[in-house]
């Protein structure tokens, strides 16, 4: 009887090429003869750069020009820790008043300092920013309103966005974006509203939104405004999202940048507390970062991205977690939602993570040579897509 150890190397390489990343890692752990799959640099490079090429570990290996074997093992440990909810290492970093963790970077405040630590790259020192110094640099009249509140909103691409609310009868709120690399203030904008405020940015654009636009039905709606770092000015038009239901960021609605678009995602159907529809769907809107306008705004069809049927059992909305995440294999944006549910009326609840592809309708154009990229395909497309929302990660 022949086994994997007896087949030619070319056959084994073909087998490895047709199974997913986690199966390759588990195969290498099955016996010492196959351990080379996770230690030999050239083989690891092929595995990492084809199966998880959009992961942080793969991108770091490309940037460093090597270290794919270490990247493979590190990615495997991370994925296993998340899948089993069992971290392979735990460390106390420090104590803080508030923190934001994004893209492997921890930003936290202690007293009158902002501290930034790159955990993903195992940085051995922190970047420390004085909050009074930052406010003095951003706002010329800050000395008259020095007793306010400071809040970190977002961090990405070595830029930190924060909110400052002054105290007093004529209190004001300011959105401040600060370049950690150049120690320069990029944005200092007085805000009309801070209701449910959020910020997303990269090195070129900054967008913030508030749940402050009151619709004709009396419900508050989201309004988004963008800024170009390169041109150093705000876009003239604001983007209104009257049909996006949900006000709790990370639970019922979420926002994210992906490539050259701004995405907004909701898992709600109605503004009413009791929904009429017994089948719920995801709803997504996107528009170009460099041209935020109603004419270029795209919206998914209401029934294209199935979420769940209420007959599957009750759920505890307090534990619902919603976000947009980049698929490490394809680089496409996907929906990730965690729900605590009593599936099919079971007496015991469970928390399950669901992933769903984002499907935008194909746009028609007069020129037959013109086409927009549609949803990406992967090996999972050979299965019944209707089962995907029920499959845990």
From TrEMBL:
Sequence ranges assigned to domain F-box in this UniProt record: 1-47
Region (Disordered): 364-393
Signal peptide: none
PROSITE patterns: FBOX
Record's compositionally biased regions (Polar residues): 374-393
A Pfam family: F-box
InterPro entries per record: F-box-like_dom_sf, F-box_dom
Protein name per its UniProtKB record: F-box domain-containing protein
């Amino acid at each position: 009887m022949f086994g994997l150890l007896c087949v030619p190397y070319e056959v084994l390489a073909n087998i490895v090429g047709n199974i997913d990343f986690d199966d390759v890692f588990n195969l290498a752990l099955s016996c010492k003869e196959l351990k080379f799959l996770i230690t030999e640099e050239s083989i690891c490079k092929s595995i990492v750069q084809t199966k998880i090429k959009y992961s942080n570990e793969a991108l770091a290996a490309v940037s460093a020009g090597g270290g794919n074997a270490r990247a493979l093992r590190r990615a495997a440990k991370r994925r296993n820790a998340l899948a089993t909810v069992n971290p392979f290492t735990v460390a106390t970093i420090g104590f803080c008043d508030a923190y934001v963790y994004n893209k492997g970077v921890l930003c936290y405040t202690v007293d009158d300092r902002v501290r930034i630590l790159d955990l993903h790259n195992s940085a051995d020192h922190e970047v420390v920013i004085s909050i009074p110094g930052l406010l003095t640099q951003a706002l010329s009249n800050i000395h008259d309103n020095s007793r306010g509140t400071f809040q970190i909103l977002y961090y990405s691409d070595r830029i930190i966005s924060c909110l400052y609310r002054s105290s007093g009868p004529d209190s004001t709120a300011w959105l401040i974006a600060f370049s950690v690399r150049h120690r320069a203030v990029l944005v200092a904008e007085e805000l009309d509203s801070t209701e449910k405020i959020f910020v997303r940015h990269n090195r070129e654009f900054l967008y913030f939104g508030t749940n402050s636009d009151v619709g004709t039905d009396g419900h508050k709606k989201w309004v988004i405004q963008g800024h170009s770092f390169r041109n150093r000015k705000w876009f003239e038009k604001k983007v209104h999202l009257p049909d996006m239901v949900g006000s709790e960021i990370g639970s019922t609605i979420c926002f994210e940048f992906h490539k050259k678009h701004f995405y907004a995602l909701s898992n709600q159907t109605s503004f009413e507390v009791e929904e009429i529809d017994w089948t719920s769907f995801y709803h997504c809107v996107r528009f170009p970062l460099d041209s935020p306008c109603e004419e270029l705004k795209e919206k998914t069809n209401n029934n294209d991205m199935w979420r769940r049927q209420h007959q599957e059992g009750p759920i505890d909305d307090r534990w619902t977690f919603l976000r947009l995440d980049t698929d490490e294999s394809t680089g496409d944006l996907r929906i990730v939602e965690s729900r605590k549910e009593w599936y099919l009326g079971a007496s015991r609840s469970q928390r399950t993570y669901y992933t769903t592809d984002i499907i935008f309708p194909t746009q028609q154009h007069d020129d037959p040579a013109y086409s927009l990229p549609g949803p990406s395909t992967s090996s999972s497309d050979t299965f019944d897509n209707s089962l995907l929302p029920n499959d845990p990660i």
